[in-house]
Amino acid sequence: MADDRRGGFRNSRGRQRPDVRRDVDRGRSASRPSERRREGDPARRAAYDVLRAVERGAYANLELPKILRNAGLTGRDAGFATELTYGAIRMRGFYDPVIELAAGRPVAQIDPPVLDTLRLGAHQLLGMRVPSHAAASETVALARSVNGTGASGFVNAVLRRVSERTREEWLAEVTAGREPDDALAVEHSHPAWVVRALRSALLGHGATTDERVEGDLVRLLAADNDPPQVSLVARPGLADVDELVEAGAERSPLSPVGARLGSGDPGAIQAVRDTRAAVQDEGSQLLALALAGAEVPSDDPEGEQWLDLCAGPGGKTGLLAVLARQQGALLFANEVSEHRTELVRKTLRAALDDGVEVMIGTGDGRDLGREEPDTYDRVLVDAPCTGLGALRRRPEARWRRTASDVADLTALQRELLRSAVDATRPGGVIGYATCSPHIAETTVVVDDLVRSRDDVVLEDARPLFKDADGRQIDALGNGPSVQLWPHLHGTDAMFFALLRKTS
């Protein structure tokens, strides 16, 4: 579970004035908006508004749907705004050096609102199928509307210079003379420390070799910049995959309870609106299925007790709840934040209405092992983490995190995992999960715990990861833990370790 709480962020200083621009361009690519309005292009304005909100600390995946709804954007217009928003955020590590050269000044000397406008223009010119004259003129019109007339002249001059070279020419220019990791960081728009961490993770989890690592690293970085396909989960007993297929999705080859939506709004699917199904990465689905599928000896006539220690916002909880019912178990969902506890309740609405019994509470998971020792048969620790495995879905996370965050998070992860072991009864299992492949957050946390205690062992989790046809999934790593990858499995880079309490 990513813990992206830190934003940024400087206040806007751009001047405001109405947009009096006339519609001067009629050429359209297949991906640009279909509607025109005298006050400006609402799709580009929506993208700009999301970037400004992200600069203030918001999350694009939460902010964009609200802004699209408020602007009344659907179909191609919404698709254009989405591609523009996510692309400009993801690729700013490449676009900012380009903007610096074209502007003749560091980006730190450009007002943040104007810089966001320039990033939107750069993405249209270098990353989208928008004709250069249209990309420049429409972005200048946006600048006139949101940044002021003076700023629009600056934006026009910079974008004209950007448009004079191809993406490949700019790439050669901005990477020339850089160290290899720094060049990769610019080309694939990741901070250099993330590039190094991902290389170490690929090697450490057995996903590559010394001979292949550079090529595999490039594939991983590229996968982080590919828009992820929408993955859906049909919560067993509430919905099934066939219902999602009938609504336009395709059956997942990876998850037996999953489907993939190639296009369209998942919120338009009735089962999703009802919370009988949900948007959920297939990797997250597989983790919940693995924990539920682990063998646990139990002779309690009242059934097992399961615990989701860090339940918010409730995606994995929603799947665990219905799996627990199928196995005659009772799920307890704990979350430290009252706000996120409410999100869990909303996620579980259909399950609760259908009679699924879930005990939902708010508390510090670090204390639960002391308060309820030797209680639970299965415990999931979906630990707060850097979120480096979910950069496809959370594009701003790469710019908010720093290498120094890892130490603080690993300290929290260790405390949560110790508490989870204490809360587990002998013979029970603990699933430790992160949406980060960082070695310090994954194998180091788990291995240190196992070395420090004599009441827990690490088990091979790989046989629990089965695809939709019941076959073991390939390329899960050296074991005994599992590491999924976007470039190998099409999922977020989820880590899962299975531990068993012995005494």
From TrEMBL:
UniProt-listed CDD domains: AdoMet_MTases (cd02440)
Positions of the UniProt region annotated as Disordered: 1-43
Compositionally biased spans, kind Basic and acidic residues: 16-43
SUPFAM superfamilies in the cross-refs: NusB-like (SSF48013), S-adenosyl-L-methionine-dependent methyltransferases (SSF53335)
Domain annotation SAM-dependent MTase RsmB/NOP-type: ranges: 206-502
Short name of one Pfam family: Methyltr_RsmB-F
Active site per the UniProt annotation: C435 (nucleophile)
Binding site residues for S-adenosyl-L-methionine: C310, A311, G312, P313, G314, G315, K316, E335, D364, D382
Gene Ontology biological process terms in this record: regulation of DNA-templated transcription; RNA methylation
Keywords annotated in UniProt: Methyltransferase, RNA-binding, S-adenosyl-L-methionine, Transferase
GO molecular function, a single term: RNA binding
InterPro entries linked to this entry: MeTrfase_RsmB-F_NOP2_cat, MeTrfase_RsmB-F_NOP2_dom, NusB-like_sf, NusB_RsmB_TIM44, RCMT, SAM-dependent_MTases_sf
Domain of life: Bacteria
Family the entry assigns: Belongs to the class I-like SAM-binding methyltransferase superfamily. RsmB/NOP family.
Protein name as annotated: Methyltransferase
Species annotation: Luteipulveratus halotolerans
